[in-house]
Amino acid sequence: MVKPWLKHYPSYMKDKLDTQQYHSMLDIFHESVVKYKNKVAYQQLDKQITYNDVDCLSRDLAAYLQTVQQINKGDRVALMCPNMLCFPIALWGIVRTGAVQVNVNPMYTPRELKHQLNDSQVETIIIFSQSLDTLAEIIDETSIKKVITIDLNELTNTTDSAAVAHEKGMKSAVSLKQAMAVGNEQPLNEPKLSHSDLLFLQYTGGTTGLSKGAVLTHGNIVSNILQFREVIQEYVKCGEEVVITAIPMYHIFALTANTLCYFWFGSRNVLITNPRDIDTFIDAWKNNPVTFFTGVNTLFNGLLHTPSFAEVDFSALKLVIGGGAAVQEAVADKWLQVTGTQLNQGYGLSETSPVLTLNNHCSTTGIGIPVPETDISIRDENDKALPQGSSGELCAKGPQIMLGYWNNDAATKEAMTEDGYFKTGDIAMLDDDGYFHIVDRKKDMILVSGFNVYPNEIEAEVAKMPGILESACVGVNDDKTGEAVKLFIVKQDPNLTEQDVIAFCRENLTSYKVPKLICFIDSIPKSSVGKMLRRKLR
What we know:
8-stranded mixed β-sheet; 25% strand; Rossmann fold; alpha/beta; 29% helix; globular; GMP Synthetase, Chain A, domain 3
């Protein structure tokens, strides 16, 4: 098949890449720490660590994991940490043992954490101290045996986070600092890794209400880094870039683009631990000549509506990419007006490592064109390819596509076509000019600030609440978060209030999943076979 989008590739961009030039992410790591040894790799407020620091500290952690905790190649290790200096140290420490990193949202509720830990069969967790209360509630119902704690100032101050863990019944807990000190005295035997070895379990929402672990290999991530570099190469001077990372590093977008790709470029990465502290965020930007920034629509919008953001010197800014959800045209227009830099959209999912398309070489509308080595096919409900200009499910094939869902053959089979394309669940079309556009979502997924929210999960949780007969959940437009969760309820208890429902949801759902709007109705519309008709509620 002729790929009509290839005509939009600049002359320097290749469609075919040698994705085998690196055997694993370890090759990329060792190349970077040698090449950029004395340059600053990561920065958090006024604290900095060099590439050599990352090399030495991650080696010590890896040696501890390997010798003391007996972590072997293929074992799963959970990392539950916000954007802090310890995140990349823990990440590379895990990778250097050949283990598989299970990325965990530190804002998860006990219920969500329990499912992810049990599903991934994790015995070791590296966890931010402020998430210890959540772990303490469910640790006895999981396979967790070893806990390594991270304090906010782990690398600079004496920390008592391990003592806090001991008080909560985690008697074997040690701090990251203690683990590295012990590991410093131990040998490290890095395993030989290849493209087929597992690297990450990246959990994504499930339509059944339970999240699924997308199995991402070294080959998936190596390929996506090479693909991303090929597209953005004109914006990159290795060893000179300054990145500001506000999207969580456990999120696949920032994980691949900011944390790994720009590490390979020898960049200085300014970490924003709490992007909701908008003033501190903007101050960090003011104090650093940022050249690359990734965000979601709500983050861009929030910055633009903060007066002090217009005071930032944007002269160094070269590339800005929005993902997670559609960037609104009004936001993109205002961003260009304030910063002088175009806001580009990328498209991808956890299952695709994530980048499938980028539009930095074309118009700001739509999701642009596929990255090299990627084929996109628009299919009908029978998985038959549709002609250009038709709307259908966006299906993708490329070296960045996941191996499958962890221990879930049925879900893996359902997500793939017979000829090996991954079915994204998004309805898209390829226009006459060779650009792709998202038309609608096939699934009932709701996008809140770039995070996936699945109605079935919320409905299943609300069903546990006394006084509720049934409920149905939909997404509605929201100026701040792109979409918001609206919950329709048929109640049995006449005294039940909106506040009661929201309070109940907050107990077991992450904040972005908690319904913003509650509507009590007499009945929920259903089809003749009893299936809820969410489209009528919308």
